[in-house]
Amino acid sequence: HARVQLAAAVDEDIARRAAGALHEEREEVGWAGGDVVARRVERLGAVELRARPLTDPSPALVREALLQGLRQEGWGLLRWSPGAEALRRRLAFLHRRLGAPWPDVGDDALHARVEE
Prior knowledge:
alpha+beta; 3 strands; 4 helices; 39% helix
């Protein structure tokens, strides 16, 4: 184990001058805590200096975050309404009895087509 023997306080201005090449500001959209989180983050290396919510994130990034959430948490994340569940059961029945053009709306089939 390494042990710090001596240290000095460094404020943000000194850190920025010393490690300016590590400074970055970017938009991040991801899945965290059961929700899509979109924010503009300013970092100095691995140190997060500040973060602000993004009010208008890229739809493509939001879509990717939702897909990440589905992969991590499964279809229960969708919280189907009773009407949606009833429609899904009817479509599943039609698919079993008649096949095409009625789509397979089971969990496995939806998972296979989640990128569409």
